[in-house]
Specification:
mainly alpha
Amino acid sequence: MEKKKSGFSHDSAQTAYETGRAYYDAQEYDRAFACFLQAADAGHTDAENCLGCCYEAGQGIPRDDKAAVNHYRHAAWHGNVFAQYNLGNCYFEGRGVKRDEKAAFEWFRLAAQNGYAIAQHRTGLCCLSGIGTEKNAREAANWFRLAANQGDTQAQCDLGSCYFGGKGVEQSAGKAFRLFRAAAMKGNAEAMNNLGYCFRFGHGVRKSERRAFRCFRAAARRGCAGAQYNLGLCYATGHGVQRDEQQALLLFERAAAGGYPAATNLLQNLRTAQTAEASDE
């Protein structure tokens, strides 16, 4: 933003931005928007990014995806990493702009290169799956590592999965376990589930069905469908806990409702078997 309103200093812009954040956190979106607009007009790129967020969510202003893109782009071109990432999301989802995976990747990568951990993780996912760029597991692992080193728990979990499967790195169950544990200790449910799997089958750690059960239970309580399925298996087979078929069925149903394919298939097989038994009687 080259132009600034006369008499409106950088300190004043910062004050307006911080006031806007306070209003935003208090859900007073009209006042927040006005403050962000004032600060953005004075060249504050974080405020410009927040204007984009307000337009995208319809907070303090009618929703306008194209206006959101314009604000994100303006801030992004001036080096704001949050706007760069948000603009990448707009391109990825086709909101306010034509869907373009390659453009999305370029903006994610730019934000990642500028040190934004969430963008580093997202760039890694793109490299791993070939979204907007060629598949490159090694490059994906490198981006996951950068984000993981900044404490991003999902990046720690995904880097652990790379080590577990030897994708882009030399396979190491021990390193996978340590990364899963680090992310799990910070509350990442997927990592808790993966940690449970390591304990269940002795990958990178001594086998412990009881500890596996506890990990699956902790992750299941946080809504992880995979963990609900694995916890159901524990109850169904009596691994790490007393066998309880009713509890197992309940957990399989929750996992299926959460979109976990293995749970859906298992329930379908159970129903097919029950139907066959009924017809034989």
